[in-house]
Design brief:
This protein is mainly alpha-helical. It is about 55% helix and about 5% strand. The relative contact order is 0.20.
Length: about 120
């Protein structure tokens, strides 16, 4: 997920750069493969991330963790039966996302956006 947070919105640019230069950029070469059984979770994370609340902090809005109620509602709507495992995976992804947000805020950069990890 960290690669996706850092480079996901630039995949098309990286591919264009590779096609034009004839060399694959290191960022594209380092792109990890998402296991097929995690596509659903990655898509769910992108959807759920849009529902997160924000709090006002020093320097502006601060992203909060995705609420358990949102994850529960998603599980019910999507028919997910192994809710404990789904919750664990979403929380792990959310923790990685929030860690990146905090690091970027500390560096003064824009917050990363979660992306549809199944897109090319």
């Amino acid at each position: 997920m960290r690669w996706q947070f850092d480079w996901g919105d630039r995949v098309d640019f990286l591919k264009t750069l590779a096609a034009q230069s004839g060399r694959e950029p290191a960022a594209l070469a380092d792109r990890p493969e998402l296991y097929e059984d995690l596509y659903e979770v990655a898509e769910a994370f992108a959807t759920l991330s849009a529902s997160r609340s924000l709090s006002m902090g020093l320097g502006g809005a601060v992203a909060n963790p995705i609420a358990l109620a949102e994850i529960d509602a998603y599980c019910r709507l999507a028919g997910i039966t192994d809710t404990a495992e789904f919750y664990r995976l979403i929380r792990a992804m959310d923790g990685a996302y929030l860690e990146r947000v905090r690091a970027r805020r500390a560096d003064g950069a824009a917050a990363p956006r979660p992306h549809d990890s199944t897109s090319s």
